Amino acid sequence: MRLVGGVLPALFLTFASFTWFLTISGCTPASSEKPSQQPEQSTADKQLIQQPETPRPEATSEWTAGPPVDVETTLLDSIPDAPAGMPPAPKVSSFAPAADLEGRVEKYISGLEKSIAEEDTFEYVKEKIGKDANTVIVLALALGLHDEPNKYRDRAGALIQTSAALAAAKDLDAAKKGIAAVREAADGKRKSDLKLKWGPVASLPELMIQVPLVNTKLKRYVKGDKFKSKADVTAGYTAIIAAIAQASMADLSETKNAEQVKLWHQFCIDMRDSAAALNSAIRAGDAAAGAEAMKKLTQSCNDCHAVFHPEAEVE
């Protein structure tokens, strides 16, 4: 069975870098006024946005087969440090309840297992593996750093490491081994001494491919009677978006100067906090508050688009 229609639309393959976030998010167009041209980088700017090298996999539209990945030897040794000046993270419970994150981790892992079981060609699962494995990395990190008890807090390190190895898979055999290792980590059968902290540990392009997919479902289910009947599902979606926003704050790869760094951090905060507000409204059954929070979440997308890719057409 080939994965079509729902795994990764052909539209995504047209944009391999930051354009993914702009053309498919479902956000309304931002103001037509163009922001002023950014000044050329100064030495201070370059120092501010400099980040340590990270072994995380990069998103790409062209995958080539390689030797099987040895899951045991491709684990992350450490999470890179966050960039200087990154705003301190609040308690994770303030933007993504543990219960909502837990449910989505299992959904992603189960979905990956199902996909690999139904395919005999790596070509049809590689995109799903890239975005979903990187999303699991972020959700696991949030659960590992969470201030609420949860089943993944002591398993987060192993789950991050095995998911990173899975994201690096280049052939079907490596993907099957990788998914099996992720399941073992999720079930508590693997140990890890990985020190957890907010840092650029996942692929930003892959995360931004995931965001519009989640956002589209979220918009569909926060309207009318579905606002309450789909509450558990939509609360999980808001937790995903909030966790991705918090994690993305540590990746400055799309910024060019100190001013853009500040804007990037603020846009991530706005996205995280509006998703958190929507989560609270959903759990309270307050549709009016939910509509207002959804509006702010959309605006956070548009504000970011206007600065980082104003020439892109946003639908």
Question: How helix-rich are the residues, as a percent range?
Answer: 40-55%
Multimeric state? single chain
Taken in chain order, the helices and strands follow as: HHHHHHHHHHHH
Sheet/helix structural class: mainly alpha
Could you give the count of β-strands?
A: 0
Largest sheet: none
Gyration radius (Cα, Å) is 19 Å
SS strand fraction: under 5%
| Shape label | globular
**Uncertain segments:** 1-39, 51-73
What is the count of DSSP helices, taking H or I runs of 4+ residues?
A: 12
How far the N terminus sits from the C terminus, by CA atoms, comes to 31 Å
Overall pLDDT: 82
Structure characterization notes:
With 315 residues, the chain is an all-alpha fold. Helices cover 55% and strands 0% of the residues. The chain contains 12 helices and no strands. The protein has helices at residues 10-14, 20-23, 43-49, 98-118, 126-144, 156-167, 172-186, 204-221, 226-229, 231-248, 258-284, 287-308.
